[in-house]
Write a structure and sequence with these properties.
The complex is a heterotrimer of chains A (321), B (333) and C (297). With 321 residues, chain A is mostly helical. Chain A has two domains: 2-57, no CATH class; 76-314, MetI-like (MetI-like fold), CATH 1.10.3720. Helices cover 77% and strands 0% of the residues of chain A. Chain A has helices spanning 2-14, 19-24, 30-39, 46-58, 72-107, 112-126, 129-143, 155-160, 170-176, 180-217, 220-227, 232-243, 245-270, 275-284, 288-314, 317-320. Chain A starts with a helix and ends with a helix. In chain B, a hairpin with a 2-residue loop joins strand 1 and strand 2 (19-31). With 297 residues, chain C is mostly helical. Helix content of chain C is 74%, strand content 0%. Chain C has eleven helices and no strands. In chain C, helix 7 (187-194) runs antiparallel to helix 8 (199-211), helix 9 (213-235) runs parallel beside helix 10 and helix 9 (213-235) packs antiparallel against helix 11. The longest helix of chain C has 37 residues, at 86-122. The two termini of chain C are 36 Å apart. Classes of the chains: A mainly alpha (321), B alpha/beta (333), C mainly alpha (297). Chains in contact: A-B, A-C, B-C. At the A-C interface, helix 1, helix 6, helix 7, helix 10 and helix 13 of A face helix 4, helix 5, helix 9, helix 10 and helix 11 of C.
Chain lengths: 321, 333, 297
């Protein structure tokens, strides 16, 4: 974890650019830049800067954005729920579509179903996410006029309705407060970005489930289970699936990592107000603290996810001993 | 004899990229109800393939069943659909697999695995199944059944595991049991225990057992009749006494000579020639390259099974030339 | 005589191996098809500058009077906002994508192989340090590190390649280290050490050549993913800059027009999809053929 911060920090500091100039804006005098430089502690040696950054980090302080002068952590907090909502929805979709797809594919290996599903899953991981997003917009917004173009809610609803705010997840909040108008609108808005983001993990999960299951289905205990006359349903969905839990958990974690970053691209297209949009604009204006904040946050999330996967794998009785 | 269980003219091939290779070619094999029949052969002879073919559990590809019939109680198993077969498995035939470690599902407790089999094959409630499972574990002579039920396979010893595998196979309640080298990975004392157990259970429950082994000694202990399998073919068959007393096929002899019989006697290793997959004789006798008695005839013509005496049949050209081909060496040794 | 025999015997299983691989390749129709398309794409990339109908449209020339035209006999894929032929640009983009992907993977290999080999061959503290660094890199979500590095380096195609290489090498390091560790204990390495061969020569003369095969296979499978990553970076404005006809960049610029000019964004995107797809299919097929676990006859 320390290494992650270190790399991110070194990256920002070796780059030949002047954060101080960014801080004060374009038409600043050299004295102003000088003053900003001192204010940001840029005049101190590098290791002092690093020490200060780390100390702040421990307090949950990611520094201030060069554009808005607001604390990065506060801005992240504001943008985060929308992204988490999107990641969550697409991961759930990926699990409930990807795993069965992989299972069916493994079960009917080398049959038509398998070929179709393999083609689909390889296709899903080969699609440029951003392009799919635009493609879907073209079809469902422009041609079929069924679904909205982007954002989390329609303009009209944003202005006229009171937006519930409890967990920060719009769909969830509107549902528990019983606000059906907002809920319906939010649902319509999440469909397209949701599908777009979900495609990649569906493909990934399906592929991994298939290859893990193929190995397991060849095991003696599967053959034995069949020889005892156990129904195929039980052999496949209980005996085999439970054994493939480890690899599946790993791949779901990995796919959440991918999804998180893919969301950045998709959010840009659907103007989804999440950290993806945040980092996109930060990239354009070279807002280093913001980029670093997002990077460090994502890496942390990824490390936590990997830990969770390890815990799930440790549930396997073979490992437990 | 029209048997309870009958295999006729069975041919099984494995498809590889170098072409089809025949792995099983059995003209006839019949079992009477209630008997224990032994199948003996070295590894690679096709014993397990035979067992899996009976259950229709061979993975295809690469396996292809080319022809033949397998009758159980007058019904041809090879004509069953997968669905019908699923009902026959467990209910009519079940199998004890050879490697207990890989046969037990590693992520379920052994109790759970037995209970599921009971529930499925007897259509009883979970509670009843639990009781039955406890009784079954006691039946296979494992102490402290309740404790064992809650354990995962890797927490048990090899002998315990093998008993569990037998318990599960018995839990199906079928009348025909295939035991595929159930003592293969166990040391000698435990081996004897398992053998005794199988023999006792067979008598108690009156099931028919097809006992597969790589060792004539094991078979002679519990079987009434035996068939010697070599390269997918039955080369000699008969009552255990007939075969042991008067082995006619040179391969049977090798198998017999590999067992130390008398105290202090050294095993004669001279006649044991190892299998060489490069030099397989496809046209004539499969044993040609390893046979000490080979003649030109053996290279080109495949010997067929012929009756020698009683129920004793042998597939060897040399077995009839005065009976000396086999018997001589054996009596000397 | 005996020496020759030994040689023949050592080659024999290899020949069988190759024959088996070819046989499996021939049997898998999807893999075969993707191989053909990949070869076709490489050919297109090689000859693109000579076969495109409007070579002058690739970079700078504009003809505003022909802007945003529907696909027609003159312009197969229509024209963009500057009146340039989309077909020519997409075709030329093949060259750019394949080139950058190759360079990026090559760079990653150049970093990854020596580090992995040294780590695996020397062991001890060196191994520990190198692998810790690798772990740090691997603890970033994929693509994120590339985005961050590209953002910091400043947007250009070269920097995007560099960013991908920097975020990609740890995979190869890890792979080759595992191989090297097992080879280190082999007789010929010990023999080389015994006769006093310098350590660097052992690493690059004996260890690397013997564990490079799986890494090369892995790298060729990664090409698809790298192409996709480059396109993504370009789409974010972190890769190729206008007027380069890079697919991701083309999709990105088309964003302002695509609701009315679908062809402008569809075709470059389709090109990315097809290219990545065939590379992935080929990689998948190769993995299945070469992996002893899955190579069922």
């Amino acid at each position: 974890m320390f290494g992650v911060v270190l790399i991110a920090f070194v990256l920002t500091r070796v780059i030949p650019s002047d954060p101080a100039a960014q801080w004060v804006g374009q038409r600043a005098t050299s004295e102003q830049i000088e003053a900003a430089s001192i204010e940001l502690g840029l005049d101190k040696p590098l290791y002092v800067q690093l020490g200060k950054y780390l100390a702040d980090l421990f307090k949950g302080d990611l520094g201030r954005s060069l554009r808005s002068h607001q604390p990065v952590s506060a801005e992240l907090k504001a943008y985060l729920p929308a992204t988490v909502e999107l990641v969550l929805v697409s991961t759930i979709v990926a699990i409930f579509l990807g795993i069965p797809l992989g299972v069916v594919s493994a079960k009917r290996k080398d049959q038509l179903v398998d070929h179709v599903s393999r083609f689909f899953s390889v296709g899903a991981v080969s699609l440029p996410t951003f392009w799919v997003g635009m493609f879907l917009q073209l079809i469902f917004y422009r041609w079929l006029e069924l679904l909205p173009l982007g954002d989390q809610l329609s303009m009209g609803i944003k202005l006229t309705c009171e937006i519930p705010h409890i967990t920060g997840f719009l769909i969830f909040d509107s549902l528990i407060t019983g606000d059906l108008v907002v809920f319906k609108d939010a649902l319509a808005h999440i469909i397209l970005p949701g599908i777009t983001v979900a495609l990649y993990p569906i493909g990934l999960v399906a592929r991994m489930t298939r290859s893990a299951l193929l190995e397991i289905l060849d095991e003696d205990y599967i053959r034995a289970a069949r020889s005892y006359g156990l129904p195929e349903r039980m052999v496949l969905w209980s005996y085999a699936i439970k054994n493939s839990l480890g690899p599946t958990a790993t791949v779901v974690t990995l796919s959440i990592g991918y999804t998180l970053v893919n969301t950045f691209l998709v959010e840009a297209i659907f103007s989804w107000p999440g950290i993806g949009s945040y980092i996109s604009s930060a990239v354009i204006s070279l807002d280093y603290p913001a980029i670093m904040g997002v990077t460090i946050f994502s890496a942390c999330a990824y490390v936590v996810l990997n830990l969770i996967a390890d815990v799930i794998i440790a549930l396997d009785p073979r490992v437990r001993v | 004899m029209s048997g309870y269980f009958e295999v006729k003219n069975l041919k099984v091939d494995f498809k590889t990229f170098e072409g089809q290779k025949n792995v099983l070619d059995i003209d006839s094999l019949a079992l009477d109800k209630g008997e224990t029949f032994g199948i003996v052969g070295e590894s690679g002879a096709g014993k397990t393939v035979l067992a899996l073919t009976i259950l229709l559990l061979l993975s295809a590809p690469p396996a292809v069943i080319r022809s033949g019939s397998i009758n159980l109680d007058g019904e041809n198993l090879l004509q069953k659909t997968e669905k019908e077969m699923q009902k026959i498995r467990g209910r009519n035939i079940s199998m004890i697999f050879q490697d207990p470690m890989s046969t037990l599902n590693p992520v379920f407790t052994v109790g759970e695995q037995i209970i599921r089999v009971f529930k499925n094959n007897k259509r009883i409630t979970r509670k009843d199944a639990q009781k039955e499972a406890l009784r079954m574990i006691e039946t296979v002579k494992l102490p402290d059944a309740a404790n064992i039920m809650a354990k995962y396979p890797h927490e048990l010893s090899g002998g315990q595991r093998q008993r569990i595998v037998i318990a599960i196979a018995l839990s199906c309640g079928s009348e025909f049991l295939i035991a595929d080298e159930p003592t293969r990975n166990l040391d000698v004392t435990i081996q004897a225990g398992i053998l005794k157990l199988v023999a006792e259970l067979q008598k108690e429950l009156g099931v028919t057992v097809l006992f597969i082994a790589n060792n004539l000694g094991l078979v002679s202990a519990i079987c009434s009749r035996v068939a010697i399998l070599h390269e997918g073919r039955i080369v000699e068959t008969g009552k255990v006494k007939e075969v042991l007393k008067d082995p006619r096929h040179p391969y049977t002899l090798t198998l017999l000579n590999a067992i130390p019989r008398d105290k202090g006697e050294k095993v004669n290793l001279d006649n044991i020639v190892f299998k060489d997959s490069e030099n397989a004789n496809e046209k004539g006798c499969r044993y040609y390259y390893r046979c000490p008695e080979k003649k030109d005839l053996c290279r080109d013509t495949e010997p067929v099974c012929r009756l020698i005496a009683g129920t004793h049949t042998v597939a060897c050209h040399m077995a009839f030339k005065g009976g000396e081909a086999g018997g001589k060496q054996h009596t000397e040794g | 005589m005996t020496k020759n025999l030994g040689l023949i015997n050592s080659i024999k299983p290899r020949i069988k191996e190759i024959r088996l691989s070819l046989y499996l390749l021939g049997r898998n129709r999807l893999t075969r098809l993707s191989l053909v398309v990949v070869i076709l794409l490489i050919l297109i990339a090689l000859v693109a500058p000579y076969i495109v109908p409007y070579p002058e449209h690739i970079e700078t020339e504009t003809n505003p009077e022909d802007k945003l035209l529907l696909p027609s006999g003159d312009y197969f894929f229509g024209t963009d906002e500057l009146g340039r032929d989309v077909f020519s640009r997409v075709l030329y983009g093949t060259r750019i994508s394949l080139q950058t992907a190759l360079v990026a993977v090559g760079l990653a290999l150049l970093i990854g192989i020596p580090l992995g080999a040294i780590a695996g061959a020397t062991g001890g503290i060196v191994d520990e340090i190198i692998m810790r660094i690798t772990d740090i890199f691997l603890s970033f979500p994929p693509l994120l590190l590339a985005i961050a590095i590209a953002a910091f380096l400043g947007p250009s195609l070269e920097n995007a390649m560099l960013a991908i290489a920097v975020s990609w090498w740890p995979w190869y390091t890890r792979l080759i280290r595992g191989q090297a560790v097992s080879i280190r204990e082999r007789q010929f390495v010990k023999a080389a050490r015994a006769i006093g061969t310098p350590p660097m020569k052992i690493v690059f003369g004996h260890i690397v050549p013997n564990c490079i095969a799986p890494v090369i296979v892995q790298a060729s499978m990664d090409i698809g993913g790298v192409i996709l990553t480059i396109a993504s970076l370009s789409f974010l404005g972190l890769g190729a800059q206008p007027p380069t006809p890079e697919w991701g960049l083309m999709v990105s610029t088309s964003r302002n027009y695509f609701l009315n000019a679908w062809w402008y964004s569809i075709f470059p995107g389709l090109a990315i999809f097809v290219t990545v797809l065939v590379f992935n299919l080929l990689g998948d097929g190769l993995r299945e053929i070469l992996d002893p676990k899955t190579r069922k006859i």
